[in-house]
Amino acid sequence: MIFKLLIALLVAYAGWRVWKHGLGPAKPRRRAVAQAPGGDAGAARRLLGVDSAADEATIRAAHRRLMADAHPDRGGSAEQARALNAARDTLLGRAG
């Protein structure tokens, strides 16, 4: 009886893990285009997907949305995160 309960708990736990984390193919990640050295604003806008009239809030929102997939802690790469951070800094006028 205890053995059957233990098996049932293990199967339930495995099912929960599949439901929470999934076992299917990983979702496709957006690829970040490397930021040109020198802080090219046009390349930064294309990378973040904003236009030339974008204000600070729009730039920050686009950066946050893209970093959700590109952050190394979320399965992205450090190179993608660096490119997105550099693009944000370029558009916000920060020295980097």
From TrEMBL:
Residues 43-96 form the J domain. InterPro entries: DnaJ_domain, J_dom_sf. PROSITE patterns: DNAJ_2. SUPFAM superfamilies: Chaperone J-domain (SSF46565). This is DnaJ-like protein DjlA. It comes from Sphingomonas dokdonensis.
